Design the sequence.
C-alpha cells in the first residue's frame, strides 16, 4: 500500500441512461411522422428553376407530379427531354390526357405539379399543358426552389 | 420441511430496447426526404368551345412575348426582364388614368406568350416578375386598408379574399402557335 493513495470521489460517475430509449423514441416518432417515402424512381434529370414569389402546396394528397427533363442514360449521360408520370416515361404525349383524366376522377381537386428541368425548352411544356387542358386538370404548379 | 423456492425475476431485459429504437431511428433518418413542395401556382384556361372569347379592349391587355433567345417584348416594345415588374404594376394599377393602360385592376389581363424554344427558366423568371407585381400591389393594398402585410392575412379569411378581389390575378397563357 502506497502512502499516497489517490483520492477518489465518492460519487458515481455513470451517466444515467435509463431515459435514453425515451429520447430515441421521441426522435423516432418525429421522423416517422415527417417521412414521405420516395414513391417514384426518377428517370429524368431535374434541376429546378428558382423563383421568389412562390407558394407552398399545403395538401400533398391533392398533388400529382409530372416530371420533364433530359432522360438519364447509363454512365451519367443525358438523353433527350422526356416526360415521366409516376414510374414510367411517356412515349406518346397524347396519352397524358387519359392518364390525367383518370387521376382527376379519383381526386376532383387535383393539382398537377410540373417538375421541369430549368434548361428544357418551352415547347414540350406547352404540349403537356395542352394535354392537361384537354383532360380538365387546370390547377397546375410550376415547381421551383426559393431564390436565395 | 419447507422447500425454499427461489423465484426467477419475471422481467424482460430492457437494455437492448435502446439499440432497437436506434436502428429504427437510423432507418427513418436515411429514408426521410424533407422536401417542401413550393412553386408558382397557376390556373390554366379551359379548352375553348366554339364560342368566341369575349372581346377585350386593347388597353386592358398587356402582351408579353418571350422569344427563343429569352428576349422580351411588352406591347411590341423591347424590354428587360428587370423592368417587367414595374411596367406590370403601372399597367394594373392605372385605374383609367393613362388612356394607354388598363381601366381597372379588375379588367387588366396580362398575357404571356412564348416561343417553342424559349428556355424554361426564362419563362419562370418572367412569370415570377408578374407574380411579384401582383404580390406587391396586394401588399400595398393590405397595408393601406388593414395596416398588416398581405402575407400575414390568414388563408381563406375574409380580409384576404377582399384584397384578392381588388387585384385578381388575370394571367393568360396565350394559345400556342401551330407548328
Sequence:
Amino acid at each position: 500500500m502506497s502512502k499516497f493513495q489517490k483520492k477518489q470521489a465518492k460519487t458515481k460517475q455513470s451517466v444515467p441512461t435509463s431515459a435514453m430509449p425515451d429520447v430515441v423514441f421521441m426522435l423516432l416518432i418525429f421522423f416517422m411522422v415527417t417521412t414521405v417515402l420516395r414513391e417514384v424512381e426518377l428517370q429524368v434529370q431535374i434541376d429546378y428553376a428558382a423563383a421568389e414569389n412562390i407558394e407552398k402546396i399545403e395538401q400533398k394528397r391533392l398533388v400529382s407530379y409530372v416530371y420533364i427533363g433530359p432522360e438519364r442514360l447509363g454512365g451519367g449521360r443525358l438523353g433527350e427531354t422526356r416526360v415521366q408520370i409516376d414510374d414510367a416515361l411517356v412515349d406518346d404525349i397524347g396519352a397524358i390526357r387519359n392518364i390525367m383524366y383518370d387521376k382527376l376522377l379519383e381526386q376532383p381537386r387535383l393539382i398537377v405539379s410540373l417538375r421541369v428541368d430549368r434548361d428544357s425548352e418551352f415547347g414540350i411544356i406547352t404540349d403537356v399543358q395542352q394535354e392537361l387542358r384537354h383532360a380538365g386538370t387546370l390547377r397546375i404548379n410550376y415547381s421551383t426552389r426559393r431564390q436565395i | 420441511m419447507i422447500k425454499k423456492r427461489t423465484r426467477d425475476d419475471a422481467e424482460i431485459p430492457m437494455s437492448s430496447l435502446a439499440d432497437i429504437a436506434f436502428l429504427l431511428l437510423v432507418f427513418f433518418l436515411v429514408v426521410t426526404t424533407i422536401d417542401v413542395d413550393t412553386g408558382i401556382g397557376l390556373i390554366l384556361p379551359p379548352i375553348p368551345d366554339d364560342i368566341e372569347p369575349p372581346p377585350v379592349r386593347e388597353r386592358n391587355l398587356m402582351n408579353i412575348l418571350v422569344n427563343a433567345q429569352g428576349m422580351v417584348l411588352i406591347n411590341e416594345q423591347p424590354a428587360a426582364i428587370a423592368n417587367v415588374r414595374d411596367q406590370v404594376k403601372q399597367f394594373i394599377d392605372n385605374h383609367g388614368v393613362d388612356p394607354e393602360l388598363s381601366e381597372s385592376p379588375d379588367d387588366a389581363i396580362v398575357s404571356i406568350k412564348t416561343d417553342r424554344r424559349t428556355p424554361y427558366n426564362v419563362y419562370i423568371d418572367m412569370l415570377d416578375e408578374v407574380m411579384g407585381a401582383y404580390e406587391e400591389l396586394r401588399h400595398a393594398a393590405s397595408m393601406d386598408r388593414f395596416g398588416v402585410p398581405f402575407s400575414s392575412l390568414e388563408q381563406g379569411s375574409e380580409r384576404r379574399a377582399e384584397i384578392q378581389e381588388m387585384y385578381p390575378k388575370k394571367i393568360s397563357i396565350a394559345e400556342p402557335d401551330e407548328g
